[in-house]
Amino acid sequence: MAAEVLSTSSLVAVENPARPRRAFRLTNLLPRIGFAIYLLALMLPIYWLINMSLRSNEEITSSLAFWPHHPSLQKYFFIFNDPTWVHAFMVSLTYVAINTVISVTVALPAAYAFNRYHFIGDKYLFFWLLSNLMAPAAVYAMPFFNLYYAIGLFDTIWAVALAHCLFNVPVAVWILEGFVAGVPREIDEMAAIDGYSFPRFFIRIFIPLIANGVGVTAFFCFMFSWVEQLLATTLTATDALPFAAVMTRSYSVAGMDWSLLAAAGVLTMIPGALVIWFVRNHIAKGFALGRV
Amino acid sequence: MALHPINHVWEQGRAYALLGPSGCGKTTLLNIISGLIFPSQGRVLFDGKDVTQLPTEQRNIAQVFQFPVIYDTMTVGENLAFPLKNRRMERAAIKARVAEIADLLDLTNDLSRRARALTVEAKQKVSLGRGLVRADVAAMLFDEPLTVIDPALKWHLRSKLKAVHRALDLLMIYVTHDQVEALTFADEVVVMKDGRVLQVASPAQLFERPEHTFVGYFIGSPGMNLIAAKVSDHVAHVSGHDIELGARYPKIKNGDAVIGFRPDFASLAPEGGIPVQVRRIEDLGRRRLARVALGPHEIFANVPEGVSIGGGTAGLSIQQDRLFVYVDDELVLGDRR
Amino acid sequence: MEKPLNNRAWLMVAPVLVLVLFSALLPMMTVVNYSVQDSLGQNQFFWNGDAWFRDLLNPSTEIGARFSDALLRNLSFSLVTLALEVPLGIAIALCLPRGGWAVGPLLVLIALPMLIPWNVIGTMWQIFSRADIGLFGAALTGLGLHYNVTQNAISAWCTIVVIDVWHWTPLIILLTYAGLRAIPDAYYQAARIDAASRWATFINIELPKLQKVLVIAILLRFMQTFMIYTEPFVVTGGGPGSATTFLSIDLVKIALGQVDLGPAAAMSLVYNLITLTICWIFFTIMTQLDRRRYA
After folding, report:
1. Mutant choice from A55, A66, A186, A216 vs C, greatest count of C C-beta within 10 A
2. Domain residues for C204?
């Protein structure tokens, strides 16, 4: 009995066609309102920071205002024109970049190994990595200083880049391992059957599949290294002075230079914002399961 | 992904395969039917009802994907019951239906195991089961479901699919790039390439009368021999030899055409027919396949039983009613009067 | 489902091991060294055995009491902030669009709080929370609340909690969002075919697939809140009284300006061990739960 069940007539399809629209219901509106409230709450202190950076110290400490009475970019000019600040900024950017690249690169094979294979001591090693994040920095600063001085790397960007591996590498391994876990093992097997060598499979097939993880890991490594101050200042003196050390110049005998600190704070957001902008497509990458 | 206009009626109880190389648009077509994407033009009708703008959950379809898609946290039984629970079926009815489908798929012993702990093949069966468990499913869609199955076990799942098909009389649409899968599974095969449907026919018809050079080439192992030739009336000129076509082809521009014939319908003999150079003869067990050359053209042909080809030359004869002429890749019908 | 035993996998892990060991081992040894010694000043040390540790863990000694108070403060702080941040972070991540032009700017906005150096955050909130010159403080007192960071312990506590939630919820959001996007479309398609509600999709597909990402997010956040230092130090100085004197602040107070680093070293080791233990317990529970799923 032939009954017409399905008829596709004159179909033409285009790329990225529209997905079904969700029905307009209150239950869809509430999350959006909540989201908007969150964003607002998020931006308030940031707006306050920008506000502070445009006001004078006297104004900050004396009155409450939504907008500076005499907005002035004076502190920003000060920072841009001060070679110490600029140099410090570049130094920080450099060691953070180096550290991010190293951390993500060594973490990728390790994360794969931890998830796909079982080897002696794997569970303990995995956990031990994380335990390095629990080192209370204040008490560890001195021993670090001694170590890097002894091997002659004191006051170089490499010292900070390497020292930051202490916490960034474990973070990278842990985050990436979670994403490796999300890729079905069958893909590995299929690639082997299709004749891919392991390095080729790993680089051309596997890493794109964990793009979300790589993007978010790169950003977090960048961020954690960027904001770390104790080790960065302990291990450097003049050549590799990071901006964290220069910022302490805002605390002087004359009192706190609030607006200078605020201006520095605003400027420090920019590199990280650029990083996450660059990895945004990796983080947001979606997957349609398909034969590779 | 751009698809060319397609007009097709898919009938209840039949199994269709969408066959073609990657990028040919078969998955796109499947996704339009399933509701994952919307076409910019055209309509999809289920039993006369226009579902083109309806989202997936409002169409009566079920789908099995390339990778087993199961709910990790549930047991096999809970997985199978899930679609029915969401549709608020009675518990007793759910239990009965789950048992029925589990029995059909040989999953009865695994019902209380965690779905995540099963083998890949079993997981695909669970995926399949979730689709079958709903009695109102109009069409079952398969998107290359055997991709991750161990080659040695593919036959088992394939026969399971056929058994299910026979038992439940469902419309099944099966996307694959593997012609063996398509030809063994389907009642009708839709061959696609570059967003176009080249031919819709039964496996036998596809084999015996390909309407497009790609269909001829893609199906069969090895595929059709396709040779550029100059056709004048009822003769094709290839490398200085004349091949009798058995029909008249008066309207071919410049005579430029491609003639096609399957190795199965071409045979070699020590002499007689078109003279060719013998390159190699392979004994494949149930048949002997010869690789010969006619001028610069490489041709595959059968060596019939009992015939032995000695030297480097032989004679090729082609069955006239299986010799086709293609112009611009499309089959041209000749006048057989 | 069993992972193949492959000891050559150590090769893939070796670079990580070398890098981290290099930074971890020597300093750790130094701290251990200090913790079992006492000093008469001028760099002369003598063995003190486990005396520092026994003092520390005895609540009746001065240092013991301080330690247990601070410990309690830290634990409750971690619990409260986690309870706030994790659900909020997941909820916001679910609201983020899955693609389109808005994703980039939204990700940037959300990431901003984490990019500000912690001392700047503390300093900024110092002003922000003042009732006379800060928006936050003024708004709260304007609403009639008795809000005073320097004098009111509850205000101080709540402020530190708010700062932490503001500062670090983005971590949870970004990790969760990345984890969500990594779920293949087919799962959502299957959920729609199965007529699953949004909640059912969340519970049965999204949450299980987010498990690993959430574990690392929670562990990271727990460690950070348990070891929090800069923000409370800058905003409240540990006060009023000792209301916000967390363990790390206490630790630095003890370590600075003292001749014998023994108590401080012992304290930091015990502190470290407690953090380790809690994380280990959580980690083991999660892996056991995972293993049981395979049964």
Report:
1. A216
2. 52-293
Average pLDDT of B173-192?
A: 90
Same domain, B179 and B47: yes
CB contact under 8 A, C193 and B67: no
- CB contact B55 to C (< 8 Å): yes
CA distance A23 to chain B (A): 11
Pairwise CA distance, residues C83 & C77, whole Å:
10
Residues of chain C with pLDDT under 50: 1, 295
Contact present, B43 and A48 (Cβ < 8 Å): no
Structure-token pair, residue A229: 């101050």
According to the model, what pLDDT value does residue C4 have? 73
Q: Is residue C21 part of a domain?
A: no
B46 to chain A: nearest residue by CA? A6
User: Residue B272 sits in a domain of what CATH number?
Assistant: 2.40.50.140
The residues with which B212 forms a beta bridge, in sequence order, are B330
Q: Is A20 on the interface with B (CB under 8 A)?
A: yes
Q: What is the pLDDT of residues A270-283, one digit of tens each?
A: 999 999 999 999 99
Residues B210 and B317 placed together within one structural domain of the fold: no
Q: For residue B294, give both structure tokens.
A: 């006619």
Average pLDDT over every residue of A30-59 = 89
Nearest to C92 among A35, A213, A276 (CB): A35
Total domains present in chain B: 2
The count of structural domains within chain C is 1
Q: Is there a single domain that holds both residue B146 and residue B30?
A: yes
| Chain A touched by B302 (CB under 8 Å) | no
The amino acid occupying position B103 is: D
DSSP string, C141-207: HHTT----TTT-HHHHHHHHHHHHHHHHHHHHHHHHHHHHHTS-HHHHHHHHHTT--HHHHIIIIIH
Q: Is B124 on the interface with C (CB under 8 A)?
A: no
pTM: predicted TM-score of the whole model, two decimal places: 0.87
Q: What is the CATH number of the domain that holds B104?
A: 3.40.50.300
Task: Let me know if residue C223 belongs to a domain.
Answer: yes
Nearest CA in chain A to C108: A273
Whether residues B78 and B208 share a domain: the answer is: yes
Structural domain boundaries enclosing B162: 15-218
Of B39, B56, B65, the CB nearest to A11: B39
Does B92 reach chain A within 8 Å, measured CB to CB? no
pLDDT at B272 over 50: yes
**What pLDDT does C1 receive?**
43
pLDDT score of C48 = 67
The helix/strand/coil state of B271 is: coil
ipTM at complex level: 0.88
On average, the pLDDT of chain C sits at 83
Q: Does residue B121 sit within a domain? A: yes
